[in-house]
Amino acid sequence: MAKELEKVDVLTVGAGWTGGIVAAEAAKAGLKVLSLERGKERGTADYQHVHDELKYAIRYELMQDTSKETVTFRNSPDQKALPMRQQGSFLLGDNVGGAGTHWNGHVYRFLPYDFEIATQTKERYGEDRLQEKDGYRFRDWGITYDELEPYFTQFEQTAGISGTVNHFEGKRSKDYPNGPMIKTKMMKMFEDAVNEMGYHPFFLPSANMSAAYENPDGEKLNPCQYCAFCERFACEYDAKATPEVTVLKTARRHDNFELRTHCNVVEVLTDDKDNSKVTGVKYVDTLTKEEFIQPADIVVLTSYVFNNYKLLAVSDIGEQYDPKTEKGTLGRNYCYQTFGGARGFFDEQFNIFMGAGALGMSMDDFNGDNFDHEDLDFLHGGNITVAQYGSRPILTNPVRKGTPSWGAEFKDESIKQYTRSISVSGQCASSPHKDNYLDIDNDYKDAFGVPLVKLTYNFTDMDRKRTKYLADRCGEILEKMGAKQVDVGEEPGDYDIVPYQSTHNTGGTTMGDDPETSVVNNWLQHWDRDNLFVVGAGNFAHNSGYNPTGTVGALAYRCAEGVIKYHKDKKRLEK
Could you give the residue numbers annotated as active site? Predict the structure, then answer.
């Protein structure tokens, strides 16, 4: 028998970026806030041996335990889905801070085009270019860039983003709070090359601090050490903006906020008397296995894409999407990301073993609709970047095409090219397709007896063509940079869930202005439950040519404002 606990005003399911933002803002507004986190608490003391590539980058110390919670996967609806038994294509977090603990820190703003992609495509190229007959389902987001701009600014100020203005981005109300990071030799070579080619380079917007910074909430961050241990690692210097050292720290300054760890939410509870409302959640203490009912006036799902979807599905909230009839909204428009790049090999050497998670130069001349698509057979594009993350020795083995994949020749080539090669990467958008979606897999269950999420996904023809197009552009840039040999990436085949690609999963709980095609409105309020909000990259109607966190942060601040408004007026929010 589950024990019922004292009611709170606002409950967040998850304590990462989105949960931390909602919790901090609601706590500042005087509401009683509780965040439930299924992982454990971690802090600086836990990271004293953080520069351990084997432990963190290969054995995934900070990641979700797939023996307890995972997803099943298949490329198409006619295949049998099987469980992902170890982390691979994406790396899900499992602790206070979530994936925000081990991220690199890239913080782009999505382009104005992204939020109105269907409308702008029809206006410029005609409705046929949306390729509906081929199964593509591009939709506007129900919000414009201009409406979301203040929230982008708020997130950037909170996270102390370092950078310079992008020529192609929408209008901004404030500059980045920090100046750019250092410009390394390879970044200068990239900048000079693309300038000569008539393009528009800018510093990669970085959540690694270029200088000491105090954010508007009074949280202090330290200058980046350029130690090369960002992605897959926590930062023991507090020099990378993470939820633990920003928004969660702010929330914890308030007596009306509580964070409970080891609490795995298994169900969102609907009011027996009024099915337009939820009453709270049921959760299991992962240490004692005890069950609890946690009542709340407002529930906000702020966990990762898959878990936000899963909690709605197993709680029977919303209609599951059916790819055959295309009825239902829950689970549709799952998107991911591809990378079309090239590697150049030089005679000179570069200090590539130093770096930071978001140290780089970018250009957007082939992103969004910044270039003419009239004679192209895909929409959107991607951001092109040269980044100096810091190449760690175990996972860094650059070799020229034609080199054996093992043996003496491989070793010699890898050692030689370790400091003599540069990668230029095109991070590509992802097209929504009717056959890419999330579902529930009743054949497999997690450690608590709850069905797993079933992922049905494959790259689309647009994805493949876009990826190859960006790879060719990256090759041209490397040639301009003076590479002696350039190996250009191939067009991708079928999506494979085994090798790491990116933790940029999107869709499944999309936002919009129509309950027939979306799960939440533009306040991230569920169409079917007035006091239920769902926020994260699952709200994206497609994925852009950028990392998602900047836009996720903006949506979380928008959601937090909606939560506070709803708590005050108890009325469904209007645009």
Answer: 504
